[in-house]
Amino acid sequence: MAVHVKTSDDRHRSVGTPDSPLSILVTGGAGFIGSHLCEALLRQGNQVLCLDNFCDFYSPSVKRSNISSCLSHPSFQLVEADITQEEQLEQLFHENDIGLVIHLAAMAGVRPSIVNPELYARVNVQGTVNLLQQCANRGIGKFIFASSSSVYGNNPKVPFSESDPVDHPISPYAATKKAGELFCHTWHHLYGISMLCLRFFTVYGPRQRPDLAIHKFLSLMERGEALPVFGDGSTSRDYTFIDDIIQGVLKAVDYIQHHHCYEIINLGNDHSVSLSQMISTLEAVSGKTAIQKQQSLPEGDVLRTHADLSKAKRLLGYHPTTSFIEGVKTFWDWWKSVFRS
């Protein structure tokens, strides 16, 4: 399949220098986090090459809407291609001068990975290796990898620190993210590519995927339907608002331009919220009552996440600023503007 490129012009993209903007490839750029990141990178004056395969894990039309505001920007290209297809990547890297890769593309979700582990291994592991090898072949020396708090498994120590052992993932998804970190280290060692592996902690906000809890629960509450509540409500997550995550990624972009490195860094909110607290907050913000249907905790789900941010603060100057209730209010306002209009 040929690589399909949508761009507002045909200019060749140049690697960033003091006199020119940085040319950045964002994989998974039409997704929830990726679309926000593309917009932010464009605001900074970068050249952005957005790669997405628009798979049907959730509606491709949602992802096309996510990225719609970028399409007319003169420094933006949208490339419809698949990271598992080496020929497509070969063409993409041959035709574009790329200074930095930010690799967000992945099959997401813990529970679906248990149902289809082969797909997750192919996309998340082989796809990552394909990108790393293209960087090695082309002499691209900067790579940022989106990892996940899921790699910590049921770590008994909180908050979770980057120095904690992560040798016991409890889902295929978590295993693929740990594998990605290891491959990044190998390519750093073999080819001298600077690597930052960013462990995201439960990102939410406008454009959040419809299968994730906050989006899913508010949609069910709006329709008066029961929420599937797994466990007794005591499980907890370090919910991180999208603006804070984007702030962290932008700081990582700045850091990797000035340091030869391999680093793993948590990006979270440093504050865990229990499932019961999350539902209560959704009720308070939406003015609706949640009908709860308790279910047993699924295999692969961790009991809690809580990020130690000391390394992110020290290396990146990362400081999340959005409280959970503020973030939920912003999400709810977005949800109403999109789904009630």
CATH third-tier fold name: Rossmann fold
Structural class: alpha/beta
Low-pLDDT stretches are 5-19
**What level of helicity do the residues show?**
40-55%
Largest sheet: 8 strands, mixed
What is the β-strand count?
Answer: 14
Give the overall pLDDT as a whole number: 93
Strand % is: 15-25%
CATH hierarchy class name = Alpha Beta
Radius of gyration: 19 Å
The CATH homologous superfamily is called: NAD(P)-binding Rossmann-like Domain
| Backbone shape | globular
Please give a structural write-up.
- This protein is of the alpha/beta class and 341 residues long.
- Helix 6 links the parallel strand 6 and strand 7.
- The protein contains 11 helices and 14 strands.
- Helices cover 41% and strands 18% of the residues.
- The chain has a single domain, classed as 3-Layer(aba) Sandwich (Rossmann fold), CATH 3.40.50.720.
- Strands 1-4-3-2-5-6-7-12 form an 8-stranded mixed β-sheet, sandwiched between helices. It has a two-stranded parallel ribbon with strand order 8-11. The protein has a two-stranded parallel sheet with strand order 9-14.
Briefly say what this structure is.
This protein has 341 residues and is an alpha/beta fold.
Q: What's the helix and strand layout?
A:
Layout: E1 4-7, E2 23-27, H1 32-43, E3 47-52, H2 60-66, E4 76-80, H3 86-95, E5 100-103, H4 110-115, H5 117-138, E6 142-148, H6 172-191, E7 194-200, E8 203-204, H7 213-223, E9 226-230, E10 236-237, E11 240-241, H8 242-258, E12 262-267, E13 273-274, H9 275-286, E14 291-295, H10 310-316, H11 324-339
